[in-house]
């Protein structure tokens, strides 16, 4: 279990190590063929900032070799904004007075029709955490409903038990994204004071449960802005390295959500600028050639246009972050503000002009 | 002219097989594949939309000289591979299948145990099976016994462009195989392809080196030339190599002494 490895590391020590890295450490890390976690620490450190250009070039080459001139496209489908958690940074938080909505089967199919019309075959189901209303039974029904329509279905919902995952995988669940938000235990408690999400340990052990259940793909990440992003990213890489060795049949992806504003919401404790996000993306690619790196519509249009060459392998487009957002076009219930408002077709066009083939389908339910 | 290659009764004049992944567009892929002269092109089932005939990728592969070789990329077990092959046969109207079972999504290393199981089953079901495997001479013989139409050992890790790192094992496989040997994976340059052909491989399969090249169309033509040159050299019989000039034979000179 990752818990045992995690407990060997102290947040302050990891942070001190990253901030003590020198230009020589960075150069050594760039020189190495197989890079260690300590090399990753050097590449995400402030000392690596002057090396952004060579890092970007290497990241581009390594991504091109592994993934070719392609970009995977996916779209989130928000099923529900019901939530029993209080999270200081989230629009769905229990204490946030918004209208709550959970899609019915008919409404899900209406959303699906719009999404399919855009060309999507790869869908990410998103919910808050409301076990009675949006629990195992709801997910079972939804997967059965959607399986004929999508070749690839992912979920970003509450962490579940191993047996629940084992039930959902044969129904067509292919990937699960579960972000730790922060690996800083005390800060985690501050940001998640109420609800099941307040258990740091249960969330930390979720990837292990997914691995044991035999999930095809899982997504990791932290919410950038809650804590020192460098230290949090080191722990993410540590988690990734552990999981890859232990659950070697599973694919992995990393996301880099930066805290976005919502009404009455939390201001980031730690700002991460665009240069730093590029540094982090490149560092991940230099550390791990095979991991999928994903960018959402939280990021600005011009930033997304440039980032596609630097290591990113999948992106969303035309997203709505509220249940019913595609068919009913209500914007009042959203989880966070979208920055890149372009349609899926406009993103596909941008990709083609940049020499990338937009990939709508890269899996098939018949493959198991 | 070099000898044509026959696999399962089908004759190929080109010994360069190609893949369809990683290209910047389907149109560019088509242009490159035409420049390569390739007559056997592998397609990942997971990338094509089997439910709709108007699939973009397939449309660009619609040429009389190109035979499709569906592959099972993405499956993790023999059972999944057999199921996928059956779907491919139905949807693409071919009983040829490139059997790829790599449960390890990171390095895409083929699983020898599951591959042998699946190959045995697929041959029984009437498929023309071309398994992607490690350069493992014993496994090649076991697959041959199971009835596969060819074997496809790797030259180096897939997508690595590192060339024939497994040359010593490929040499053994080529020497003892009764079915065509197609070197698959890791071929990064026309010189690598030529080397495989000079060694006596029956064909090579190239994908990443074309798709990721700055100019995939010209690179495809370069590979076409490399494969042809390597095969011609093999058939012509390469002159022996020697590390040093051969002196008159001092060790046996005494035999000539009176």
Automatic annotation (TrEMBL), chain A:
GO BP of this protein: thiamine biosynthetic process
PROSITE patterns tied to this protein: RADICAL_SAM (PS51918)
GO molecular function ontology, one term from the record: 4 iron, 4 sulfur cluster binding
CDD domains: Radical_SAM
Record's keyword terms, sorted: 4Fe-4S, Iron, Iron-sulfur, Lyase, Metal-binding, S-adenosyl-L-methionine
Cofactors that this protein relies on: [4Fe-4S] cluster
Highest taxon, organism lineage: Bacteria
Record domain Radical SAM core: where: 69-298
Protein name per its UniProtKB record: Tyrosine lyase ThiH
Organism the protein comes from: Chitinophaga eiseniae
TrEMBL record, chain B:
Annotated ranges, domain Thiazole synthase ThiG: 6-250
Pfam families from the UniProt entry: ThiG (PF05690)
Pathway: Cofactor biosynthesis; thiamine diphosphate biosynthesis
Keyword flag Plastid: no
UniProt GO cellular component terms: cytoplasm
EC number: 2.8.1.10
A molecular function GO annotation: thiazole synthase activity
Sites where the protein binds 1-deoxy-D-xylulose 5-phosphate: 159, 185-186, 207-208
Keywords: Cytoplasm, Schiff base, Thiamine biosynthesis, Transferase
Catalytic activity: [ThiS sulfur-carrier protein]-C-terminal-Gly-aminoethanethioate + 2-iminoacetate + 1-deoxy-D-xylulose 5-phosphate = [ThiS sulfur-carrier protein]-C-terminal Gly-Gly + 2-[(2R,5Z)-2-carboxy-4-methylthiazol-5(2H)-ylidene]ethyl phosphate + 2 H2O + H(+)
Protein origin, superkingdom: Bacteria
Residues annotated as catalytic: 98
Keyword Cytoplasm: yes
SUPFAM superfamilies: ThiG-like
InterPro entries: Aldolase_TIM, Thiazole_synthase_ThiG, ThiG
Top class in the EC scheme: transferase
Cellular compartment(s): Cytoplasm
Family: Belongs to the ThiG family.
Assembly behavior: Homotetramer. Forms heterodimers with either ThiH or ThiS.
Stated name of the protein: Thiazole synthase
Gene from which the chain derives: thiG
């Amino acid at each position: 279990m990752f818990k045992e490895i995690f407990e060997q590391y102290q947040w302050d020590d990891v942070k001190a190590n990253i901030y003590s890295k020198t230009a020589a450490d960075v150069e050594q890390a760039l020189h190495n063929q197989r890079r260690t976690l300590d090399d990753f620490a050097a590449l995400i450190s402030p000392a690596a900032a002057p090396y952004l250009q060579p890092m970007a070039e290497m990241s581009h080459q390594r991504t091109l070799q592994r993934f070719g001139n392609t970009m995977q496209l996916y779209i989130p489908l928000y099923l529900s904004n019901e939530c029993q958690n209080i999270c200081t940074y989230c629009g769905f938080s229990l204490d946030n007075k918004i209208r709550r909505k959970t899609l019915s089967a008919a409404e899900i199919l209406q959303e699906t029709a719009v999404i399919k019309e855009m060309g999507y075959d790869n869908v990410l189901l998103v919910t808050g955490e409301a076990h009675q209303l949006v629990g195992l039974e709801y997910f079972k029904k939804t997967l059965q409903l959607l399986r004929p329509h999508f070749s690839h279905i992912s979920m970003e919902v509450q962490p579940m038990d191993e047996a629940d995952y084992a039930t959902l995988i044969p129904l067509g669940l292919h990937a699960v994204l579960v972000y730790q938000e922060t690996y800083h235990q005390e800060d985690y408690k501050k940001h998640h004071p109420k609800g099941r999400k307040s258990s740091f340990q249960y969330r930390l052990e979720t990837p292990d449960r997914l691995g044991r259940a035999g999930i095809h793909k899982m997504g990791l990440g932290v919410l950038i802005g809650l804590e020192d992003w460098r230290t949090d990213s080191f722990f993410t890489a540590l988690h990734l390295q552990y999981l890859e060795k232990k659950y070697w049949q599973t694919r992995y992806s990393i996301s880099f959500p930066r805290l976005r504003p919502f009404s009455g919401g939390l201001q980031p404790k730690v700002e991460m600028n665009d240069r730093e996000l590029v540094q982090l993306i490149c560092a991940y690619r230099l550390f791990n050639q095979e991991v999928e790196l994903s960018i959402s519509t939280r990021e600005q249009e011009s930033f997304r246009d440039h980032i596609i060459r630097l290591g990113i392998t999948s992106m969303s487009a035309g997203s709505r972050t509220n249940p019913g957002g595609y068919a009913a076009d209500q914007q009042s219930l959203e989880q966070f503000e979208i920055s890149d408002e372009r349609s899926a077709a406009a993103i596909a066009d941008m990709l083609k002009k940049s020499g990338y083939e937009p990939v709508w389908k890269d899996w098939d339910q018949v493959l198991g | 002219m070099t000898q044509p290659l026959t696999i399962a009764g089908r004759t190929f004049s080109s010994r360069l097989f190609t893949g369809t992944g990683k290209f910047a567009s389907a149109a560019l892929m088509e242009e490159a594949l035409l420049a390569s002269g390739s007559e056997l092109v592998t397609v990942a089932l997971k990338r094509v939309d089997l439910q709709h005939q108007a699939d973009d990728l397939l449309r660009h592969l619609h040429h009389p000289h190109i035979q499709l070789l569906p592959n099972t990329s993405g499956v993790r077990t023999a059972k999944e591979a057999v199921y996928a092959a059956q779907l491919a046969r139905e949807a693409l109207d071919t009983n040829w299948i490139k059997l790829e079972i790599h449960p390890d999504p990171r390095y895409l290393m083929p699983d020898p145990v599951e591959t042998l199981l699946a190959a045995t089953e697929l041959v029984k079901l009437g498929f023309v099976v071309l398994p992607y495997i490690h350069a493992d001479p014993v496994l090649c013989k076991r697959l041959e016994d199971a009835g596969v139409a060819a074997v496809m050992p790797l030259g180096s890790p897939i997508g690595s462009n590192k060339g024939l790192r497994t040359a010593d094992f490929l040499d053994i496989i080529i020497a003892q195989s009764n079915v065509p040997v197609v070197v698959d994976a890791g071929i990064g340059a026309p010189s690598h392809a030529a080397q495989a052909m000079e060694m006596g491989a029956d064909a090579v399969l190239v994908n990443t080196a074309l798709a990721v090249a700055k100019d995939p169309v010209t690179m495809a033509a370069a590979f076409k030339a490399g494969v042809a040159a390597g095969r011609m050299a093999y058939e012509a019989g390469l002159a022996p190599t020697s590390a040093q000039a051969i002196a008159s034979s001092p060790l046996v000179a005494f035999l000539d002494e009176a």
